[in-house]
Amino acid sequence: MGNPSSHEITQLLVAWNQGNQAALEVLSPLINQELHRLAKRYMADERQGHLLQPTALVNEAWLRLIDWQNVEWQNRAHFLGLAAQIMRRILVDFARARNREKRGGDEIQVSLTEAANIPSNRSAGLVALDDALQALEKLAPRQARVVELRFFAGLSDEESAEALHVSIGTVRRDWNLAEAWLFRELKRREPTRDV
Amino acid sequence: MTSEQFLRVGELYHAAMELAPEARLDFLAEACDGEDELRREVESLLRARQQADGFIAGKVAGLVAEMAAQQKNPSLATSLTLSLVGRSLSHYQVLSLLGAGGMGEVYLAQDTRLERKVALKLLPPAFTRDPERLRRFEQEARSVSALNHPNILTIYEVGTALTEAAETHFIATEFIDGQTLRERLRGGRLGLGEALDLAIQIASALAAAHEAGIVHRDIKPENVMLRRDGIVKVLDFGLAKLTEGQRDEGTGRQGDRGSVESFPISPSLRPSVPLSQTEAGRLLGTPQYMSPEQARGQKADVRSDIFSLGVVLYEMLTGYPPFEGVNAIEVMAAILNREPAPLKQKVEALPDELQCIVSKALRKNREERYQTARDLLNDLKDLKEELAFTAKLERADRVERDEAAPFPAEALPTAAGTAIPTTSSARVIFGEIKRHKLAALIALLALVAAAVSVGLYWQAQKTSVPIDSIAVLPFANQNRAEETDYLVDGLTESIINNLTQLPNLRVIARNSVFGYKGKETDLIGAGQALGARAVVVGRVLQRGENLTISAELVDVRENKQLWGQQYNRKLADVFAVQEEIAKEISEKLRAKLSGPERQQLAKRPTENLKAFQYYTQGRAYSHRRTREELLTAIRYFERAIEEDRNYGLAYAGLANVYSSLGAYGYLSPSEGRRKAEDAARKALALDENLAEAHMVLGQVYVHFTPYSFSLGDGELRHAIELSPSLALAHWYLGISLVFQGRLDEGQEELLKARELDPLSPVIARSLAIPPHLKRDYARALELLQQANELGPPFGTTFEIGVYIQNRLFNETLAELEKAKRDRKNDPILIYGTGMIYAARGERAEALRIIKELEEMSGESLSQAHWIAKIYATLNEKELALAWLDRGLAAGAIGSFYKDEPVWDSIRSDARFGDLLRRMGVPQ
Q: Do B61 and A29 touch (CB under 8 A)?
């Protein structure tokens, strides 16, 4: 199967939104691919010297994938919401896979030799964040949604407000509270002891 | 909490955020008007807010980099596609993921036609591109399977199915409910009888396959499954062949990482390493089980499998693979040139005949090896019979068990640097280049750390009002390569350590400042939150050969930069720089410091870069404090010591880890004590002025009964003298004083510890102990709740007493259940639950928990202290006293607070006084 056009991708999104689960199965690897390609390009760009901003990356991936011209304005916000869900699923799946590998592989064996390649704890961090976010969803669904939109789809405050049909001020407040809540929740869950 | 309640929390939170920080608490007190729970919730969120900035972005930043890094590796695409669980593949319904390995992911699936469970292995596309090769593999797999040998995994089908994007090739095999030999070996070496038995079964599988003309090519513990009933199944015959040739492709792709492209690759170095995917997601090989001919890149034949089985047998018997090295090249060099250490050197009780068999299987020249697996099988069987006959088998097994018992760390799959990465020769060579670069980089960082420290110290003393407290914030890593992160952290840590040793300067501990890692930090706010007068910030950037490090010192009270310096160095200049910086140190400090202080600062703990590298890793692991990570830390410290026998700090690190293992009951306390004390003494023998070593020795004296408080306090005070900002030394001293009933003095030291390490949950929590022992339960509770914001609850044994005295039974039980989800089988949570039941008078439940703890603690009696506490709470005086007595006799009691309210029921009993005397606790 060749690379589908942005038009086709948009169609797939519509199909998924209408309940066709298979459409998501086709979409995910495509989004992955794009994400990777972009990430690699960002990383390789020597001249910029900027830190890799994941949100910018994710945003760009979506801009490239979706045929925005043919998406009606109110749908646009809706799509952004879908984008966030998919992106969350991909990133978290990836992180879980990494965790699994870490547990499965002989972690010490590798890390000793090439010290520079020691894996980060970030995948574990993201999985924990996702778990905490699920807990927040039960308590405060809208606040959790704001995190999903801003964090996993890289939306701006304005775009998030548009997707949720609330004011920008609300989005900012929601983010502020959700971030504090999640931070505290993760701190509480962290299994570290220090003597 | 319900969503309605949360809504109120949110409203109050936002209202408070609108106000100036100092007005918030008053506002909340008024608005909540007696609803304490609501007020506490909002307050805790406001506190969390102060640190929460940007933390979410930090969670994903590195991950995207990891995803990008994986892009280099085509076969990994599979691990990125969505999991197949719940979907159908051909006529298989996928049930769950069993594992992910080099040959792709393996799922448990239901065969919907034949209604049986199967294991489905998906072959990554990269392995199946060549149809001819795939066909040959299928043919081989089928013919091995057709042998119907009990020790060869049965293959049901090699098939293809269409998934979203492409054709997926899969292998359906019988499903084995059991573990791999690799997993089994994680539990330590095997007994002689078991090892022989497994080797016989593997040899039998090989003999059958070889006689059918099929070579396995990749015999290793990962490819041997152990069924619960003791039957061995050898997996993946011929699969290794599929991957041959992949590395050529890999080589090209490695090129885009740098200079490797043009590096000439000697064909002799081209290993035919079977691919296996390890944690970092790269394609890595395991050269450890490779035969010499495979290491030379020659064709494998049946005798190669025999060699590999020899390696596996050696590892089963000793717990160590025979050929080790810190990277693939060294391992392969060992396989080609080195004779493995005799078995007896590792495990004395092994019979001589076994040595003959192993040696013959491991002959470098394949002409001198066993020529057929059948011959090897016969020798193994003969030996087994002979041993059984002379009953030697039983005896050897018994001796072994006794020997193997003492310490779980020995059971770790042998040391670390063994199964070494790499697939392609390019990768190997690249690794080497990188390692050397890395060594230079590490050396430079260490030197720069010294220079920065000197500059800082000098400046701090020079200001009109000398700076008396400093927080070194984690240096920012400006390299895109996230992999250098830990080196940059190492630089920060070195600077902290250097400064900690200097007089008249309070330096905030690593633990607290690392909360700021990777964040855009408001310096003034951070300085205030950490209670420091000045903060240090810096950046590290490595571009090719050039390394730039900049650092500045900012006075947060005056909000001005006191000092700033940029260091530009070339990696290659490392030795010249070393001299230059040493000179700088002596010139700048001559006037300022006394002789010994100057020496202290200029002292480099090791000259061996590898040792430094291992040590840094060990430190990183020992900070995390779960059982597995502590055990890993031990491995690293041991490696560091292997590299540099005179590395005092590494011994001190080792001592600290053993002491913690004993204190947590992960190791029997007496064992932990002994090993910690040994290591601490070695450290002191090497450097009698090593603060960390004095600290750990003191820790040992005051952590385990019978206590030696005067010795311990002396060591701890000496450590503080040598290194005034060593937070943990203050903390151990504080705890020691509390044990002795000197609550006020103890509290003073605990407060000092917190000043130095304000974000440590353990230190914060300990501040609740003095009020608890003084029966001020409300204050103790308040302090505990503050500490719980910093880390998870239930890290120490006294906490539960505070909740009980505040009669928070239901809430605490709920919290305990919550904690159990993340910390399965953590004895401290089980103990806590038992205490609550006992306090509520639910006798039967409490006794059930005691039984559970009894089983966990076994002969080491590591939980005796806790069991006694539950009995005391149940008012079972005799039993409480009896368990204290037993625990004490076994050396298994630590952290005993004689003033704790839980002992009130037995305090007046003469036997309690007697126990205290035996523990060495003053009355």
A: no
pLDDT higher than 70, residue A79: no
Note if B218 is an active site residue: yes
Q: Are B168 and B122 in contact (CB under 8 A)?
A: yes
Averaged confidence pLDDT in chain A: 66
At a CB cut-off of 8 Å and minimum separation 6, what does B247 contact? B270, B273, B423, B424, B425
Single-letter code of the amino acid located at B711: L
The ipTM is 0.74
Banded pLDDT at B741 (limits 50, 70, 90): very high
The amino acid present at A27, given as its one-letter code, is L
What is the total residue count of chain B?
923
Q: Checking phi first, is residue B346 left (phi over 0); if not, alpha (psi -120 to 50) or beta?
A: alpha
Distance CA A165, CA B455 (A): 55
For tokens 């704790």, name the residue.
B900
CA distances from B314 to B232, B354, B355, B579 (A): 17, 10, 9, 47
Higher pLDDT, B900 or B594: B900
Q: How much of chain A is helix, strand and coil, in % rounded to 5?
A: 80, 0, 20
The residue with greater pLDDT, B590 or B705, is: B705
* Catalytic pick among B26, B36, B197, B218: B218
Taking 50 as the threshold, does the pLDDT of residue B735 lie above it?
A: yes
Which residues, including other chains, have CB under 8 Å from residue B356's CB and lie 6 or more apart?
Answer: none
DSSP β-ladder status, B469-472 and B506-507: parallel
Contact, B371 vs B316, CB < 8 A? no
Contacts of B438 in chain A (CB under 8 A): 115-116
CB hemisphere CA count around B405 (13 angstroms): 12
Nearest to B760 by CA among B734, B737, B740: B734
Q: Kindly report whether the global pTM for this prediction surpasses the value 0.90.
A: no
| Lowest mean pLDDT across B271-275, B396-400, B813-817, B820-824 | B271-275
Q: How far is A174 from chain B (nearest CA, A)?
A: 9
- pLDDT tens sequence across B136-170: 777 777 777 777 888 998 888 888 776 655 567 78
Residue B202 has pLDDT above 90, yes or no: yes
Contact A39 B624 (CB under 8 A): no
Name the residue in chain A with its Cα closest to that of B81. A29
Contact B57, A55 (CB under 8 A): yes
Query: How far apart, in whole angstroms, are the C-alpha atoms of residue B78 and residue B908?
Result: 68
Distances (CA, A) of B94 to B79, B127, B812, B881: 16, 22, 41, 56
Distances (CA, A) of B231 to A148, B3, B141, B181: 49, 54, 21, 12
- Residue B586 exposure: Cα atoms within 13 Å on the Cβ side: 7
Choose among B63, B421, B481: nearest Cβ to A122.
B63
3-state helix, strand, coil in chain B (%, to 5): 60, 10, 30
The model's confidence at residue B557, banded by pLDDT at 50, 70 and 90, is confident
Whole-number pLDDT of residue B213: 84
From first CA to last CA, the distance across chain B in angstroms is: 46
Mean pLDDT of B789-817: 89
